[in-house]
Design brief:
Strand content: 15-25%
Shape: elongated
Number of helices: 8
Largest sheet: 5 strands, antiparallel
Strand order of the largest sheet: 3-2-1-5-4
Radius of gyration: 31 Å
Distance between the termini: 50 Å
Helix content: 55-70%
Structural class: alpha+beta
């Protein structure tokens, strides 16, 4: 992907805006904070303004943090920094940007004396540290836990896209029928005008093998196998009996379908 860091950051924010679950969650957190009134906000604000204040802060800081973290992480990565230094740098910048926004908002809304502003500077250290930890956690989850989820969802075989929707299912067998290939799935059968060799190229990660010049079978759908002289007969989950020629008997033995 050739997106710039700015484009990546904008996309991250747009996706967050489109996620209703996140928006509801942010609103809920804002309401809880508004009702509890932390950091002495209960002493200087009435309930309704306080809830609005905290709900707005939660939304602003989340989207600002998402933008800054994504932008800085992508920028530092493209400058050649390793993964974790870039992530930590993004976390630090996120914390600083959130704290700067918090200072500006509070100075604009409240008549803060100089000593109160100085006291808020100590809060900045906590904000930066917490933002860095959260950013590292999010990056780790996306790159590792998210990667495992993607690996657990393999793409269906390409041959299935040739079938009507109601007949798409797990591949069971494919057999030559004149100039056609009869594709059998757990949801039925369909004739396709193509060669068996081309059909076998489209089975993807399905565990199977050619057992005859006219037949291919999925190994997981062989329910029984018996010798027939030098040949063999395979019974499939669909109820079909498929002949296996002597040429393919050694491969069936190696696959554990026939006894050695």
């Amino acid at each position: 992907m050739n997106d710039t860091p700015l484009q990546l950051a904008k996309r991250e924010v747009q996706q967050s805006f489109a996620n209703k679950t996140k928006l509801i969650g942010l609103l809920g957190i804002g309401v809880v904070l508004g009702l509890s009134g932390p950091f002495q906000t209960s002493e200087v604000m009435q309930t309704v303004p306080r809830v609005i204040y905290w709900a707005a802060l939660c939304a602003l800081f989340y989207f600002l943090g998402s933008f800054v973290a994504t932008f800085v992480n992508a920028l530092l990565s493209r400058l050649g920094l390793p993964e974790w230094p870039a992530t930590i740098g993004a976390g630090l910048c996120t914390g600083l940007s959130i704290f700067a926004a918090l200072m500006l908002i509070n100075i604009a809304l409240f008549d803060l004396p100089p000593e109160a502003i100085k006291g808020m500077l100590g809060l900045g250290v906590n904000v930066v540290v917490i933002s860095t930890i959260i950013t590292c956690g999010i990056v780790y989850f996306k790159r590792h836990a998210g990667g495992k989820t993607e690996e657990a969802a393999p793409q269906p075989p390409a041959i299935l896209r040739r079938l009507p929707l109601e007949k798409r299912g797990a591949l069971v067998a494919m057999s030559v029928s004149d100039h056609y290939v009869q594709v059998t799935t757990t949801n039925g059968q369909e004739l396709l005008l193509m060669r068996l060799s081309d059909a076998m190229d489209e089975v993807g990660d399905t565990k199977g093998m050619q057992v005859h010049r006219s037949h291919w079978v999925a190994l997981d759908h062989i329910t029984a196998a018996k010798r027939d002289g030098a040949k063999a007969i395979l019974t499939l989950s669909s109820g079909q009996d498929i002949p296996a020629s002597r040429t393919y008997v050694p491969a069936l033995k190696e696959a554990g379908v026939l006894p050695g």
